[in-house]
Amino acid sequence: MELRQLEYFVTVAELASFTKAAEALHVAQPGVSAQVRKLERELGHDLLDRSSRTVRLTPVGATVLPQAQAALAAVAAVRRTVDELSGLVRGRVTIGTVISMGKAIDLPGLLASFHEAHSGVEIGLTEDSSEHLLEALHAGRIDLAVIGRTGTRPPGITLYDIVNEPLVAAVGHQDPLAGRERVGLAELADRALICLTQGTGLRSVVEAACAGAGFRPHIAFEAADPHVLAQLAGRGLGVALIPASLARANEAEVRLVEIDRPRIHGSLALAWRTDGPTSPAGAALVAHARARLPRAD
């Protein structure tokens, strides 16, 4: 009995199709069929019922399947243990990031240096809101995320702050606020505000600060890309609440006005499951990111 035979059998059983199993395994279908037949001959029983379009388990196959799955999981665990002891890391990792991150950190550079250090690891990247990224972390769909910090540490998640900067009011050059150096947050109670979408860390920070100042913000426009927020403000459509560095990057279109009473800060943090990633490759990614990105003050 070979591990390859067990792998082919389990894949066919889980996908209920020799064709889909061959595609998933990147093997020609006749090869999959031949190896499963060889396993059945060795065991002396049919494991799969091929009499209909959908491949089904026979009673013997249904009994064997959990044990075959356990055997493959045990072999994978042995390989992970050996990899950890030898320092050899392979597999796949996925990092998630908020769409509104912009150029706050050099994410391409981070991933490139990780690939150079661990060329055997396949890297995946996904963009979403902080809320959805946290859900993906809990579910184990991603290993590491760059999220907007809201001030409260989510349960079961470890945070490592990497960016912390003030939010400012960005307005068009003809806006009444354009000639001022600073504005109190409460003064924006009657203004049309331009902000990031629901579920982002910065949006949560803005809403909490406005509530503390005694008003509910009137969000006239929202977008996932913070550069779009600056462009909308530059066209005179409202006051964009964005990080100071982003306002400076769009100074040709907007005027930066400091917000005080109170000051508001936007933060980005690395986030991962407190009980650790599920693979050595995931743990290596977390360690690499912490080493490359300095902790914010």
Automatic annotation (TrEMBL):
It comes from Streptomyces noboritoensis. PANTHER family: HTH-TYPE TRANSCRIPTIONAL REGULATOR CYNR (PTHR30346:SF28), TRANSCRIPTIONAL DUAL REGULATOR HCAR-RELATED (PTHR30346). Belongs to the LysR transcriptional regulatory family. This is LysR family transcriptional regulator. Residues 1-58 form the HTH lysR-type domain. Keywords: DNA-binding, Transcription, Transcription regulation. The keyword Transcription regulation applies. The keyword tRNA-binding does not apply. PROSITE patterns: HTH_LYSR.
